[in-house]
Amino acid sequence: MAAVSKSGSKSIAFKVTAYTFCALLTVLSLLPFIIMIVNSTRSTPQIQENALSFIPRGHLMKNYAVFAGRDFQPLVGFKNSLIISCGSTLCNIYFSTMTAFALVAYDWKLRKPFFTVIMAVLMIPAQVTAIGFYHFIHGIGWLNSFLPLILPSIAAPTTVFFMRQYMIPSLPMEILQSARIDGAGEFRIFNQIVLPMMKPAMATQAIFSFVASWNQLFLPQVLLTVNEKKTMPMMVSLLNGDSYKTEMGAVYLGLFLTVIPLLVVYFLLSKHIIAGVALGGVKG
């Protein structure tokens, strides 16, 4: 009995320690967001007096009014970034999953060399090809267009690699063979059988792809020069200008506006990730 009691007390102590540590990590993770949200509702003198506060104030609309008549246009940047990020994410996920399906489901002679080339592309930084890419886009007349920021997402080596690794153990070839025997075409098999089975992996990569596209600053600055086409990160970069150095509340509000879509996308797709982890645990 004493041994059981001692073991039970150790288990309780471990749980208390683990829960306390997790709670501490949660607080530390949420603290910057809470400070950012609260400061976006405060005036500059209030922030200068006490930057660390958890009490919201009533200066939200006044801070937003600071943007009026200046280069920072949150609604324009929000719309442009949303178009680019959604289009880029859809192209990335769909065509990368299709490429991974071709690497897993079909046995063709150049399959391994093709996959090696895809992995080699991962080693090439985007900045190395930026000059040639700019000349190409300029030559076909696509400057100040969203298409150069969306269509290249069709070729996403990182997503292809992740999808392939997820697909190898979780895609039963027997189902594909049965569908072929029943007369289903390859596109129908991919769209109606493979894609639903890949939802957890697609949701995970959709979050990463959307965040990467939303935060992209280098290529948009090179390709988009018209104010009406500027993305949200380009707008945020303007907050470092001299005209905003005395408007700290407006700066916090601008940063908060850039984070909202990322949080929405995560909360919409996180349930699919959790479902995929739970399904994997049941299979294991």
Characterization of this structure:
This protein is an all-alpha fold and 284 residues long. It folds into 2 domains: 58 residues; 221 residues, MetI-like (MetI-like fold, Orthogonal Bundle). α1 packs antiparallel against α14, α4 crosses α8 and α8 packs antiparallel against α11. The longest helix has 38 residues. The two termini are 35 Å apart. The C terminus is likely disordered.
Summarize, please.
The protein is mainly α. It is built from 14 helices and no strands.
Topology, please?
Elements (H helix, E strand, L loop, with lengths): L1 H38 L4 H6 L10 H6 L8 H32 L5 H11 L8 H10 L7 H4 L6 H14 L2 H9 L4 H12 L1 H17 L2 H6 L8 H6 L10 H36 L1
Helix pairs in contact: 1-14, 4-8, 4-11, 8-11, 11-14
Q: Gyration radius, to the nearest Å?
A: 24 Å
How many helices in DSSP terms?
Answer: 14
Please name the CATH topology of the largest domain. Answer: MetI-like fold
In which range does the helix fraction lie?
over 70%
* Sequence stretches where pLDDT stays below 50 over 5 or more residues: 279-284
CATH superfamily label of the largest domain: MetI-like
What descriptive keywords fit this protein?
MetI-like fold; transmembrane helix; mainly alpha; flat; 2 domains; 14 helices; MetI-like_sf; sugar transport; cell membrane; 284 residues; MetI-like; disordered C terminus
